[in-house]
Amino acid sequence: MSMKKTPIGLLDMNTENIAILNHLANAFPHEHFIYIYDPDCPQYEGLPEEEIQMRVEKNLNYLLLRQVKLIITLSNSIVEYCRDLLDHVSTPVVNIVDSIVDEVNTQYEHKNMVFLANENMVQANLYQKNLKYNHLYAIFADGLNRLIKDQKMKTSESFRVTREAFRLVLSKDVDVIVPIHVNLMLLKTEIREFLPESDLLDIGALLIEKAKAALLTVENIVTRGRGMIEIPQISKEQKGDYRKILLMKRIVWKKNI
Asked: What's residue 76's pLDDT?
C-alpha cells in the first residue's frame, strides 16, 4: 500500500472535538480520515493512569493497524496521561496541547487571555503552567459544551449561556480567547457577540497548519481522488446526534469496533 494513500488518524477521548472534521475535510478534500474515540468511557477523570493508558493504547493500535500516515491527538486528557506512549510511535503525531501552547506563546506572549476549558481541565493545570501571560482568566466551558452536544448553537439559550459564562470578563481588557475544545468554535458567533474586540484562537485552522506541515515533510498530501471520513464507533442510526455539528456529507457511519 502506498504511504501517500493511507488515512490520517484522529485520536480523541469523547466527541468534544469531532467538529475538527469540518475543518479537515475542507482543507484536505482528497484525504481519508479515521476518527476514533472512547464511547464506553467518555471521561477519564478519576480513572487509574494505567487504565487510561490501556484504553488509549487500544485505540492507538487500531489506527496503527490501519496504517495511518499521521495521528492528530485531539484530547487534552490523552496528551496529559499518554504523552510517552505517543512519543514512542513511529508515525508522526500532532497533539492539540503543544499546538495551542506554542501558538499562544508565539503570538500572544505576556498578553491578557481567557482560557476556555472544562472545569476538570482547568484544575489539571495542563496549559496554564506552560502559557506565558500577563493575566489569565479561566472560564469553565462545561455548559457551553453541553449546548453543542444538544445542538443548540445560535439560539437564544446559547447567547444567554455564553454571556453568563463570560460575565466576569466582559469589562476586562482581553487580548485573546483560548478555547481548548474544537467544538467550541461552533459558538464563535455567540462569543464574538460579547467580546468583539478580542481575538479568538481558531483551533481548527491551527491544527490544519500543523497537519499540513507534518504531511509536507514526508510529501504525503493526497491531491486527487475522492476523500472520505470514517467514524467506526458511531452507527448510521446515531448520525442525527451530530447533524448540526458535522457539516460535510461524505461520512461513513459504521460501528465496526
From this structure: 94
Q: Convert the pLDDT of each residue in 149-208 to its tens digit.
A: 999 999 999 999 999 999 999 999 999 999 999 999 999 999 999 999 999 999 999 999
Does a structural domain hold residue 102?
A: no
Q: Tell me how far apart the alpha carbons of residues 236 and 232 are, in angstroms, rounded to a whole number.
A: 10
Note whether 9 and 93 are same-domain residues. Answer: yes
Give the chain's domain count.
2
241 vs 29, 37, 150, 232, 244, CA distance in Å? Answer: 24, 15, 8, 15, 8
Do 86 and 212 lie in one domain? The reply is yes
Helix or strand or coil: residue 13? coil
- pTM to 2 decimal places: 0.91
Tell the residue number behind the cell numbers 497533539, with chain if given.
Answer: 95
The secondary structure element, H or E, covering residue 237 is none
User: Checking phi first, is residue 47 left (phi over 0); if not, alpha (psi -120 to 50) or beta?
Assistant: beta
C-alpha cell read off for 88 = 514512542
**Three-state secondary structure call for residue 64:** helix
* Mean pLDDT along residues 61-71: 95
